[in-house]
Amino acid sequence: MKNIPVIMIIFGGSGDLAHRKLYPSLFNLYEQGLIHDNFAVIGTARRPWSHEYLREQVSDAIHETHDQVDENEVKAFASHFYYQSHDVTNVEHYVTLKKLAQELDDRYSAQGNCLFYMAMAPRFFGTIATHINDQHLTGSGFNRIVVEKPFGHDLVSAEQLNKEITASFDENDIFRIDHYLGKEMIQNIMPMRFTNPLIKNIWSGEYIKNIQITLAERLGVEARGGYYDTSGALRDMVQNHIFQIITLLAMPEPKDLSSDSVHQAKQELLKSLIIPTPEEVKKNFVRGQYLGSDTTFAYKKEPNVDPDSTTETYVAGKTKFTSGPIAGVPIYFRTGKEFKEKKTRIDIVLKHINNPYGQAHSNNITIEVDPESKIYITINGKKIDEPGIRREDLTYVFSKEEMAKVPDGYERLLHDVFVNDSTNFTHWSELKRYWEFIDAVEDAWQKENEAGNPEIAQYLPYRMGPKEADNIFESPTEHWIYE
Ligand code: BG6
């Protein structure tokens, strides 16, 4: 693997994301030689840390995520890290940062290549982008920027942020990260759809009755009440992760696997995304909040949450496209906190066919993303000792050995940023379309809130969410496959 020369600046270098995900992933890429002699990382944050202290943190992060490591390697890796105490609103600090980046560029022969990583509170993204531009922080080589989610709070704020970022970076150099696109089974959707005649040939409204996507979480909002109460499940999970999955499931086949072709196919599809009217939102969407239990708080009692909050910790909804291979097929989705279990899965439900045996079970193709990686197809067969049809699953489960080989999503996506592959990142025109959809739902809800009659279903923790979500189906023969 080639050794990419680069100076990486992480805004939010003392944060949780850097510690849990970025430092361990960078170490793995270092071990593979993708970054090696010619790189340095500057971690910035407000805290008054020293270079040495940051290096200790980096080393701790690696030990916490790796069973066995060569201590000399960890030390050598950590020696590439530098810390700069930084107030994102202070112009002077950007001047100092630029000086340090230039010094390190010389010392490590990084060829003027810069990678900026926005890993701090999203409210600072615009300010940072503006200062990068005003203080000319970009280098003379490649300049790339990775932006964490959420990218904006609605379409207007996303457009503003995009303007601030594109002042210094070309669209091709902006990597809007969505960690779901780094997951093994999400990356498996395209090969599954396009290489198997068994699947490809039935991928149409003629055979598919509906598609169901569930992103269920066992955890509540935990310590993130402050952020979450301004976001809610629709913005936190649907705007990004669920829409990325929907797009991969519904897009036409790209002409090849280049990043441009994949994005082109996605954009072609998204033009035909149906944006719901307020009436459709009322009919096809359910929002909910979890109640408390003996040992857990109700959402409204969580720390930093408004006791009168109308923010949803659960949402179920429906969408459709007017073009593409599954035009007209209803796509149902749901996501929520404090579900019975952590489970990310996609169910493709096929239509029944007339047959001489009478009733048969539907064929479903299920892709389980988390916690296990597996694919299973339900099929009908003969009962052994009595007349009739029984249902069996054809299952492919990834073995422990295979799973051990799967890199963490962040490692994969960071790798792609270094090698300049944008395939698994969100293009601006896709993001824009997702926000148009989300805004339509949020606006309808907002009007209900203002009219004083918001319909917010209350649900018991650690079950399957609000029962109202059973009523969003188009026909009485449809129901949630995962129950
Ligand atoms: C994040 C959300 O994007 O995804 C969190 O902000 C959520 O609220 C998380 O918990 C879920 O990710 P995963 O990979 O655990 O399914």
TrEMBL record:
Residues annotated to bind substrate: H179, K183, E217, D236, K337, K342
Listed InterPro entries: G6P_DH, G6P_DH_AS, G6P_DH_C, G6P_DH_NAD-bd, NAD(P)-bd_dom_sf
Enzyme Commission number(s) from the entry: 1.1.1.49
Biological processes, Gene Ontology terms: glucose metabolic process; pentose-phosphate shunt, oxidative branch
Molecular-function annotations in GO: glucose-6-phosphate dehydrogenase activity; NADP binding
Superkingdom of this protein's organism: Bacteria
GO cellular component terms, semicolon-separated: cytosol
SUPFAM superfamilies, per the entry: Glyceraldehyde-3-phosphate dehydrogenase-like, C-terminal domain, NAD(P)-binding Rossmann-fold domains
Role description: Catalyzes the oxidation of glucose 6-phosphate to 6-phosphogluconolactone.
Alphabetical list of HAMAP family matching this protein: G6PD (MF_00966)
Protein name per Swiss-Prot or TrEMBL: Glucose-6-phosphate 1-dehydrogenase
Annotated source species: Lactobacillus amylovorus
Gene behind this protein: zwf
